[in-house]
Amino acid sequence: MSDRLLALSGNSAARSLARTVGMSLPPRLERDPAPWAEAPLVGRTIQVLLGPGAALAGTLAGSLARLGAEVGVHGGDLAPFAAAGEAWARAAYTLEGEVEKRAWALLIDATGVGDVAGLRFLWEAVSPRLRGLAPSGRVVVLGRPAEAVTTPAARAARRALDGYTRSLARELGRTGATANLVTVPDGAEDRLHGVLHFLLSPRSAYVSGQPWALSDALPAAFSGARPLDGRVALVTGAARGIGEATARALAREGAKVIVHDHPSAKAEVDAIAAELRGVGVVADLATAEGRAALAAAVGPLDIVVQNAGVTRDKTLGRMPAELWDLVLAVNLDAVLDLAERLAPTLAPGGAMVCLSSIGGIGGNVGQTNYAATKAGVIGLVEAWAPVCAARGVSVSAVAPGFIETRMTAAIPFATREVARRLSNVSQGGLPEDIAEVVVFLASPAGRALTGRILRVCGGNLLGA
Amino acid sequence: MTRALLCGGARIPFVRSFAEYTELDTIALGVLAVRGALEKAGLRQEDVDAVIWGGVVLPPTAPNVGREIVLDLGMPARIEARTVTRACASGLQAITDAVAAVERGDADVIIAGGSDSTSNAALTMPESLIRKVGPVVMGKKAGMGAYLGLATRLSLTKDLLPRQPRVAERSTGQLMGEAAEDMARRHGITREAQDALAVRSHQRAFAAWESGRFDAEVVPVTLPDGRVISRDTVLRGDTTIEALAKLRPAFGKKGEGTLTAANSTPLTDGAAAVIVASEAAAARLGLTPLAAVRSWAYVGVDPADQLLIGPALAMPKALARAGLELGDIDRVDLHEAFAAVVLCVQKALASDAFARERLGRDRAVGVIDEARLNVHGGSVALGHPFGATGARMVLTMARELHLTGAKTALLGICAAGGLGAAAVLERV
After folding, report:
1. What are the tens digits of pLDDT across the range A22-61?
2. Nearest residue in A to B350, CA atom
3. Measured distance CA(B152)–CA(B427) in Å, rounded
4. B163 in a domain, yes or no?
C-alpha cells in the first residue's frame, strides 16, 4: 500500500540520484492537519495578476488582507490592496520585472477577458512568474461563467480559461503545485472569500485542474475558525479510509459526529466514535430495514456525508448478477433512499455531501457497476440541489481520484502503480485530502458550490 | 456602588537581571514594594483586607507569591492573597481585579501590584526526564532492576540538560523580539525612529528622577551586603542617538534587523505595589486618593500574526467603555516592551483602515500627541520586571494626574500570547 517512490522523494540523496539518472520522483505535497484558522496565509506571499478589465480587485484586496497574505500586484491599481492591507499591516506592493519573492500563489483575475487579444495576458503576466512559484503552491484563475455571454468571441475567450488552467495544472504537478479555475457569476463575489480561504490553503493539496463554478443559489456565509461548531454530522461508512478521515476532520472543526458503518465493523465504529466523543451506529445499508433503522437512530442532523460504498470489480462480460446487484444496491439505491429520508430533515444551513468517483466520470475497466453508481450519484446531487436550496441546504459531491486506502491497496501491483502516477502530481491522494474537501463543502463557505461535483484527484488523466 | 480609589503606592528601583538583586527572589522583592507602599501611604497592616499580586515567572514551589509576601512581611495571617498571571499585563490585572473586588464590596482595602525576578527563574528539566524517572521513583515500589534500567535509558542531551529559559511563544516558538522585529518591518518602522524613542524614554525618565518626581514613589533597597540601590539601573541619562546607532541588531536576518539591546527592554528584576481602597475606607483611614480606574479592557489577537499589537485594540475598547475619545485623554502611557511596538500601536491607532476593519469605527482612533505620551519615560529606560510593569505604570500615572491637574490617562500594555491590555485612569 505504501508509495515507495514518494517515500524515496523524502530523501535528499535519493532525489539528487534520481535527477542524475533523469528520473523524477513525486513531489511531497504540503498539507495542513491543524484546525481551520482565520488567517491561514500569514507569512505567505500571493501575487495578484490583474488582467484587462479585471473586476475582482476590490474583493481580492479585502479577502487577501483578512487571510493574512502579503500581496504583490501586477497590471492594475495597487490602491485597494494597500488600503486593505493597512488595517493588518500587511504589505502590498507593485510587482516589477523579475520575481523578487517566492510566491505561494498566483491569483489571476481574468474576469474581464472578452476576446482573443485579452487572453494574451495569460501568457504575458503568468509565464515569467511560474519559476518563482513555491513547491506545492497554488495558481487560481478567476473568470466569469462562459454561459453567461452569448457573443461567440466572448464565450470562446471565457471557455479558453478552462483548457488553459487544466494544462497549467499538468505542467505544475511535478512541483506539487496546483492550478484551478474559479468562475464567479456577476453578484456572487461575496462567495469568493470562503472559497479562497480553502483553495489557497494547503488543505486543497490534491485538487488540481478543476473548474469551480460558484453558485449563487444559497446566500453567502463564512466562518473562518471552527466552521462546524455545534453542527451534528452523520458519516456513513466511517470505520476506515475516507469515511474515517472525514469523521475526524468534521469533529476537528467542531461537529458532533455520528459514525456509521456496517455491523461487521462495530468495533472500529465504537472506537472512533468514542475517540471523537461522537456516537456510533451500525446498520446494513444494503437493506431497507438497515436504512430505516439508521434514519430512525440519528435524530436531527445538520450534515450528512454519504460515503459508504463498495467495489466488486469484474469486466461486464464476466460479471455475475450478485456483484452487479450488490454494488448497485449499496452505492446507489441506498444513497437515493437515505437522501430521500434525510435530506428533507436537514436543518437550514446544513449540507449533504455525497461521494462520487472519477470512475463515474471517466469510466474504468472492470467497473461498469461501480461507475454506473458513481455517475448516478452525480444525477442525484443535481436533482436534490435545487430542491434543498429552497430550504437553505446545500447538496454537492466529491469525486475522488486514486486515494491510498484499503480499497485501492487491494488493486494488483502493476495496475495500482500506473493508477497512482496518472495524476499531475504523480501520486495517490490521502483520505485526509478528501476529508478536507468534504469539510469545506459541508461548511458555510462550501454553500457556494451547491449542486456541483468537485473532483479531488490530483488532476487525474482519467475522464479529464 | 462604591468607587475604588488608587491611594498611592510604591515601587523599588528596577534592576537589570543577574545583577544586584540576584539574591532576592520575586517574593523578597514584593515584600519590599508592599512595605514601601504601606509606609508611604501611612497605612497600617491591620487595615488591609487582601493582597492581589501579579507575576509571570512564578516560583514553582510557591506560586501564590501574594500569600508569601503577606507571610514574609509578618502581616496578620487573616489577610488573604492571590496571585494572578496574564503575562506582561499581570500587574495591571492585579489592580483591575482589586478595583473590581472593592467596587463589588468584597474588600475595603487591597494592596495590588506585581513583581518578577528573572534572575531567580527556576531551570526546568525536560519533561521526558520526568516521564522516565517519575514512574520508577514516585510510582509503586520499584526493584533494583527498574533503577538500573532507568539509568540505561537516560540520555545526557535529551533528558539531563536543563531547558534554557527563553522569552518565546509556546504556540509559535517565535521569540518575542522576532515578533517585534516582524511588526516593525510590516509597519515600516525604522531603526532611527526606534532609537529616537529610546533616547526620549531615557531622557524623560532621567528628568523625572532629577526633578524628584520618582523619589516619592520609589523606595530605596538595602542589599544583604549593605549596598543601597536608590535608582533604576537600566537608565542612562546621558545616552544619545549616536551611541545607540552603533549597536548591532539583536534579531532578524543579518543586516535587516532594526531592534537592538537599547531600543528593547532588558530582563529586569523589580516590584511595584498600589493601594486600592473604597471611598469610605480611604476617608476613614485618612488616605490620599490620587485617581480612580474609570474603565479597562483586555483583548486577544492571533499570536502568529502580530503578537504585540494588542494595545491597539484594547485601548479603543477601554476608551469606549469610559465614554471617551483619544482627544479627551491628557496622558498616554504605553508599555515600551520594544520601542518598535509603541510605534506600531501608534500607527495602527492613526489608521482609518485599521479602525474600519479591526474596530468597526468609521475613523481612526487618532494620533497620540508625543508631548502626552510616556511623559516620564517607559520600560525601555526603566526596565521591565514583567509582573511589576503594569503597577508601575498605574502608580506613576495616578500620581501624574494628582500632581498636574491632568484629568485622564490612558494605559496600554502588550503581552505574550497575543494579549493586549488597557485602562483609563481619571483624577479624583
Report:
1. 677 899 999 999 999 999 998 899 999 999 999 999 999 9
2. A87
3. 66
4. no
Q: Is B353 on the interface with A (CB under 8 A)?
A: yes
Residue A97: predicted pLDDT: 62
Identify the closest residue of chain A to B359 by CA–CA distance: A87
Lowest mean pLDDT among A76-85, A401-410, B10-19, B164-173: B164-173
Most confident of A66-80, A89-103, B307-321: B307-321
CB A192 within 8 A of CB A183: no
**Number of folded domains in chain B?**
1
Distance CA A444, CA A446 (A): 5
Interface test with A, best of B182, B185, B302 (most A CBs within 10 A): B302
Q: The domain spanning residue B282 has which CATH number?
A: 3.40.47.10
Whole-number Å distance between alpha carbons of B64 and B66: 5
Q: What is the 3-state secondary structure (H, E, C) of B273-287?
A: EEEEEEHHHHHHHCC
CA distance B341 to chain A (A): 13
E-assigned strands of A307-390?
351-355
Is residue A313's pLDDT more than 80?
A: yes
Instruction: Kindly report, residue by residue over B3-16, the tens digit of the pLDDT.
Output: 999 999 999 999 99
Nearest-CA distance A93 → chain B (Å): 12
- What tens digit of pLDDT does each residue of B191-202 get? 999 999 999 999
Which domains does chain A carry?
A: 31-213 (3.40.50.720), 232-456 (3.40.50.720)
Q: With 70 as the cut, is the pLDDT of residue A99 above it?
A: no
Name the strand (E) or helix (H) holding B422: strand B419-427
Rounded to an integer, what distance in angstroms lies between the CA atom of residue B176 and that of residue B103? 36
Full residue range of the structural domain in which residue B308 is found: 4-121+265-427
A83 with B344: Cβ contact below 8 A:
no
Instruction: Give SS3 for A459.
Output: coil
DSSP A97: S
Cell of A412: 494488483
Q: What pLDDT does residue B31 have?
A: 98
Task: Give the gap in angstroms from C-alpha A224 to the nearest C-alpha of chain B.
Answer: 13
Q: Which comes out higher in pLDDT, residue B133 or B212?
A: B212
Cβ <8 Å between B354 and A87: yes
Looking at the partner chain, which of A42, A83, A86 has a beta carbon nearest the beta carbon of B305? Answer: A42
Please give the pLDDT value at position B319.
98
Distance between CA atoms of residues A88 and A371, nearest Å = 49
The percentage of chain B sitting over the pLDDT mark of 90, rounded to a whole number, equals 83
Residue A416, pLDDT score: 85
Contact B357 A88 (CB under 8 A): yes
**A14-28, A231-245, B271-285: range with lowest mean pLDDT:** A14-28
The verdict on B183 touching A (C-beta cutoff 8 Å) is: yes
- Is residue B42 in a domain? yes
| Residue A225 forms contact with B (CB below 8 Å) | no
The reply to whether A370 belongs to the active site is yes
Binary contact (B353, A84; C-beta < 8 A): yes
Contact between chains at A88 and B344 (C-beta distance less than 8 A): no
The Cα of B216 is separated from the nearest Cα of chain A by a number of Å equal to 41
Q: How far apart are CA A281 and CA A257, in angstroms?
A: 11
Q: How far is CA B128 from CA A212, A326, B164, B172, in A?
A: 48, 53, 15, 21
Q: B356 and A38 in contact by Cβ < 8 A?
A: no
List, in sequence order, every residue forming a beta bridge with A74; answer none if it has no partner: A49
3-state secondary structure of A412: coil
Q: Is residue B223 a part of any domain in this protein? A: no
Q: Does any CB of chain A come closer than 8 Å to the CB of residue B180?
A: no
